[in-house]
Write a structure and sequence with these properties.
Number of helices: 3
Keywords: Membrane, Transmembrane, Transmembrane helix
Number of domains: 1
Mean pLDDT: 84
Structural class: mainly alpha
Number of strands: 0
Largest sheet: none
Strand content: under 5%
Order of helices and strands: HHH
Protein name: DUF1049 domain-containing protein
Helix content: 55-70%
Oligomer: single chain
Length: about 130
């Protein structure tokens, strides 16, 4: 598609140069009228006009098709990017969930030492209220 677009652009540029050369009277219309065996210069200009119309129509159609192809490709890449982002998000959620779950305790752990359940380990020995003060 891009190659066709370039070829038509080159043809349009060549047409514009030739048309300008005729309009500026650098090229002789009378010689081309005689060369192509036309009745008069008006017929030559009419054919030149039709050639321009057809070239510009072809350029318009090719440009629109090319733009549609680019948009379609861009939409496809956007969908693929969205899918990849979703997969990455799911992977991150799975790794975070795996990191937050506690590991099961090992079997070779040493049990804590036996403590007297009546004694509170967080407080100092409480004073005896029945003992006389000195």
């Amino acid at each position: 598609m891009e190659t066709l677009k370039k070829i038509i652009n080159i043809a349009v540029m060549a047409y514009l140069i030739i048309a300008l050369l005729f309009l500026l009277r650098i090229l002789s219309v009378d010689k081309f009228v005689a060369l192509f065996d036309m009745a008069d210069a008006a017929a030559f200009y009419r054919r030149l006009l039709w050639a321009g119309v057809l070239l510009l129509l072809a350029e318009l159609l090719v440009e629109n098709a090319y733009i549609a192809t680019l948009k379609r490709g861009l939409a496809l890449e956007h969908r693929q990017l969205t899918e990849l982002k979703a997969k990455l998000y799911d992977q991150r959620l799975n790794t975070e969930a795996a990191a937050q779950t506690p590991a099961p305790p090992l079997d070779n752990t040493v049990p804590p030492p036996a403590v007297d359940p009546t004694r509170d380990p967080n407080h100092l020995a409480k004073p005896n209220h029945h003992r006389p003060l000195p």
